[in-house]
Amino acid sequence: MAAKGDFSEDEWKTLSRSVTGAGMLVSLAHKDFTDSFGEANALAREMATEHVHSQSQLVRDLGATHDTGFGLTASLQKVEAETIAALGASVTLLTATAPDELDAYRAFVLAVANKVAEAKGGVVAQETAMIARITAALGMAAA
Description:
- The chain is an all-alpha fold.
- Helices cover 71% and strands 0% of the residues.
- It is globular, with a radius of gyration of 14 Å.
- The two termini are 27 Å apart.
C-alpha cells in the first residue's frame, strides 16, 4: 500500500492537484456564483470523508489535502489544462510505482468530481461533459 511518504514532493503535488483540480474543474464548468460555496463545501466534505474512511492509505493521505494549487481567480482554461495534465501524470506515476492503488485513486477522483456536480441544483450538461473529460484523462472509458 502506497502512502504520501512514498512520493517525492513534486509527485505528491501532482497527485494532490489532480484530485482537487478535478473538483474545481467540474465547479468551473458551470459557473454560478451561488453554486460556488456549495460546491466548495462538497469538495471539502468528500476529501474529509475519504481521509477518514477510505480503505486505501494513499486516498486517506490525499484526502488530507487542503490546498488546490489554484488561486480563487484561476481561469477555467488554466484549471482544465493543468488538471488534465496532472491526471495523466498521476495515472502514469501510479501505474509505474503503485499499480495496486490506481483503482482507488481513480474512484476517489471521480467521487470528488461527482459530489461537486451534485452539490447544487443537480448535475447539468456542462458538468457531465467535464466529468467525461476527467474520466478520459484517468484512462477510463466513459460509463
